[in-house]
Specification:
By secondary structure, the chain is of the alpha/beta class. The protein has 15 helices and 13 strands. About 45% of the residues lie in helices and about 15% in strands. Strand 4, helix 5 and strand 5 form a beta-alpha-beta unit.
Length: about 375
């Protein structure tokens, strides 16, 4: 395709950091196909803006609250976003994360944008609300039906979400595309490992936003149990306090830090170096996951995975082969899974090697980007 600056794509999200961490290669591929790319998000730092501009992407601040359900605020956000889109007049929009999927697609429709694409990267906390409230389920389903009316394609990262949208007749099957995980750079997330010696201390690591629904407290409870049982284990928790209502607070962490149960470096710039010096990755999530990016990274780093038999998480683990699946909200089962690896050291290497093989087969970000952009940029 020849380069034509009249070909414009607007990517809309609710978290600016995700544009750099999850979508940068996708947007660079759009530029390589001849498109001018705008990236809309509500929480830009100057650093994020500079990095996007260096890649040829135009960052645009928008007023979009990530967690607010206030209908008056949402209407205001919708009007403002519609006006911004009318000014840019793109050929296509791509929305991801729940709030942008709803607000962004409706705004794009009102702005007269014919080509609208969506990635359903899990339902987030909405999945819990759907399970616990018939009113919320009704509201969510019909909001999605309105937002995705006459959409082009909707990409799904797991089959559970795809089935939910199909069963509730939100969109027709012909508009659905199964993507699987969003993918990672397999060359970057490669971590050759030495064989684990029998007398070595082993290290468990969890890297996530510190939300209750991500299973942080379950991990901390299991960490205390395994620390009381074994002397040769280390436990690390990477991530920062979040402004999400379900975030844990620093006071809840203090007990585990002060008693040297876990090491908490907070948010880190180089997650890979922490994964490479750890042995087993843990994510006891009961959040509405897509396929967790953190698991994809850990698998690419040749790590066994302990996660939940839950939406999105279970898609990455063959139980007993590259990791262990545990029930949600069950710190005892998590403790037993962690104990298994402490008592069966050879399985760390065996399961970790298979994780890498599976990651190469399932999570190549360049293949995922091509799949998405072959639709958007056709």
């Amino acid at each position: 395709m020849s380069r034509n600056i009249n070909n414009k794509i607007v990517v809309i999200t609710s978290q600016a950091f995700s544009l750099l961490n999850f979508r940068l290669e996708l947007m660079k591929d759009m530029i390589g196909r001849g498109y001018k790319v705008y990236a809309m998000a509500p929480d830009y730092s100057e650093t994020y803006k500079i990095k996007l501009k260096e890649s040829g992407i135009i960052p645009i601040d928008i007023n979009l609250a990530r967690t607010s359900l206030n209908p008056f605020r949402s209407f205001y956000e919708l009007i403002r976003l519609t006006c911004r889109l009318r000014t840019i007049r793109p050929n296509s929009t791509l929305c991801y994360f729940v709030k942008p999927v709803l607000i962004g697609n409706i705004a794009a429709f009102f702005a007269g944008i014919r080509n609208r694409y969506t990635i359903i990267e899990g339902l987030g906390n909405s999945r819990s609300y759907i399970l616990n409230s018939l009113f919320y389920k009704f509201f969510f389903i019909y909001s999605c039906k309105i937002a995705l009316f006459r959409t082009n394609q909707v990409f799904f990262t797991n089959n559970d979400d795809k089935d939910f949208f199909l069963l509730n007749r939100i969109i027709k099957d012909k508009f659905m595309v199964y993507l699987g995980g969003i993918g990672v750079d397999l060359n970057f997330w490669d971590c050759p490992r030495k064989h684990v010696k029998e007398n070595n201390t082993i290290t468990f690591i969890m890297a996530t936003r510190l939300l209750r629904t991500k299973g942080v407290m379950i991990y901390l409870e299991a960490a205390e149990k395994i620390k009381n049982k074994f002397d040769n284990v280390n436990l690390i928790l990477i991530g920062d306090i979040d402004n999400n209502p379900s975030s844990i607070n620093e006071g809840e962490l203090n007990y585990y830090i002060e008693n040297e149960i876990v090491e908490w470096p907070g948010n880190v710039d180089d997650v890979k170096s922490w994964l490479c010096k750890s042995d087993i990755f843990v994510l006891p999530s009961y959040y509405g996951e897509g396929v967790p990016r953190s698991i994809q990274e850990a698998m690419s780093c040749s790590m066994p995975i302990i996660t939940t038999n839950w939406v999105g998480c279970k898609d990455s683990v063959v139980d007993g082969q590259n990791g262990i699946l545990v029930p949600i909200k069950d710190s005892d089962s998590l403790y037993l899974a962690m104990s298994f690896y402490n008592n069966n050291r050879s399985k760390i290497t065996e399961h970790g090697n298979l994780s890498r093989v599976m990651a190469v087969d399932m999570f190549n970000i360049f293949e995922k980007n091509k799949m998405i952009n072959d639709y958007i940029c056709s």
